[in-house]
Amino acid sequence: MTEILVSDVNLNSVCERLEKHCCVDQNQHNLSSQPQTPVLKRHSNTGAKLWGRVRSKLLRQKLDPQTVQSKNWHMDVIEMNGIKVEFSMKFTSRDLSLKRTPSKKQSGVFGVKINVVTKRERSKVPYIVRQCIEEVEKRGIDEVGIYRISGVATDIQALKLVFDTNTKDILVMLSDMDINAIAGTLKLYFRELPEPLLTDRLYPAFMEGIALSDPAAKENCMMHLLRSLPDPNLMTFLPLLDHLKRVAEKEPVNKMSLHNLATVFGPTLLRPSESEIAKAQHITSASDIWSHDVMAQVQVLLYYLQHPPISFAELKRNTLYYSTDV
């Protein structure tokens, strides 16, 4: 019997964990008196069929207005071929799930402004970003669904604690940790920044720039916006961009295209400030704002992922050129 708790409704990651457990001990059905070596036999398609039922039920409940309005956990059980899945689900609105809460302890890295971290570390890119990228490229770039499949929450929290306390065990822990947990830690770091990496101030301009129809005007606008980022933000964004491009080069193996990666990271790196949301809500509904903005956020990151290599030095040279051009 397998019990799986689905608290964040991450369907893909739960599906993969379920598949690993969808097997039965063949010895239970072996009537021979001879000692047998334990053999595990998977029911044909049991995992896929069972997960299809779970997914269908979860999605139906997610669309149910009563479920959406309720703040309580909803419990349910689905069973097939001796495999039992127990799950609980609670609806959390997107604006609450992505709300950024600054850390009260400025000694850590999660929830701390990126310029504070880089200044303290005397580095151009936060240590956590460099180490997670390095580990993913070392042993996770061929992993199917890297960055899409979530790691185990307890592993991610353990890594978060280690990075926040700056212990000497980070490198050992990273080398032993599941690669999806490391990828999840990197996403969590960006998600918990007090301000998105591409900044609240520039968010409206990014939305306007990506909507431009003239290619030359869009190019000028999007590059100008990168030059307008604070140096710690830009110097963190560019290596992340190069890393994601290298991940996408392995798409035939890891199944992660540029668009998939933009979908994962876009809303994390770029999202409206609370004041922008409040302002827009006077015009249209919150759900319309989110659906429109998420598509635009994905398109912004996809634009940079599809762009030829961008160097910090070249951007800064162009900044000097524009500032002295009369």
Automatic annotation (TrEMBL):
Residues 112-312 form the Rho-GAP domain. GO terms for cellular component: membrane. PROSITE patterns: RHOGAP (PS50238). It comes from the Eukaryota. InterPro entries: Abr/Bcr, Rho_GTPase_activation_prot, RhoGAP_dom. GO terms for biological process: signal transduction. PANTHER family: ACTIVE BREAKPOINT CLUSTER REGION-RELATED PROTEIN (PTHR23182:SF5), BREAKPOINT CLUSTER REGION PROTEIN BCR (PTHR23182). This is Rho-GAP domain-containing protein.
